[in-house]
């Protein structure tokens, strides 16, 4: 989808407060529903990558998933704020504002309009395993450093994936994770040590409603 649909005066309103030079982690997803693993991944990334903030980018819909049971955006955003419960984790509807479901559009917009910020894309190992299916995945990797959070038992599948193999020479040792935000893309790190395996799929009922809610 083209960025010609961006409405500039609304973009700044959809981006959380920030100051020049901040190190910002970007965690995209449907958050349908958000859960404690999202929070744990974010706090883990804040510490290991020495980030100032993590922004949760709540997507209007995942192009690689069936979105028939996707809850309304406002409900997912409010639930995300409730789960985040940390002043360093901010929730954004930027992708809805720029009318895209593609990460490449989101990154292009952020880098163009907020060039003074240092962004890191955060994803779970399960997403690295299918990263080669994302729209313009090579361009994504070439524009922003990436942190991949291990999610056992996905480790082997993720590291053997086409994207991981193609980008293998750009992988930093885990001991240099704190330097990732300062690297020129492509650059990525695989972070181990977080042992949470919750998923939004496991927290939905067959009719799409969220478990624990009516």
From TrEMBL:
Species of the source: Bradyrhizobium huanghuaihaiense
Known catalytic reactions: nicotinate beta-D-ribonucleotide + ATP + H(+) = deamido-NAD(+) + diphosphate
HAMAP family membership: NaMN_adenylyltr
Pathway in which this enzyme or protein is active: Cofactor biosynthesis; NAD(+) biosynthesis; deamido-NAD(+) from nicotinate D-ribonucleotide: step 1/1
Enzyme class: transferase
Classification via InterPro entries: Cyt_trans-like (IPR004821), NadD/NMNAT (IPR005248), Rossmann-like_a/b/a_fold (IPR014729)
Catalytic activity, EC: 2.7.7.18
Described purpose of this protein according to its UniProt entry: Catalyzes the reversible adenylation of nicotinate mononucleotide (NaMN) to nicotinic acid adenine dinucleotide (NaAD).
Family statement: Belongs to the NadD family.
Gene Ontology BP, a term: NAD+ biosynthetic process
Name of the featured protein: Probable nicotinate-nucleotide adenylyltransferase
Gene: nadD
One Pfam family here: CTP_transf_like
Keywords annotated in UniProt: ATP-binding, NAD, Nucleotide-binding, Nucleotidyltransferase, Pyridine nucleotide biosynthesis, Transferase
CDD domains: NMNAT (cd02165)
Location of the Cytidyltransferase-like domain: 26-188
GO molecular function, one term: nicotinate-nucleotide adenylyltransferase activity
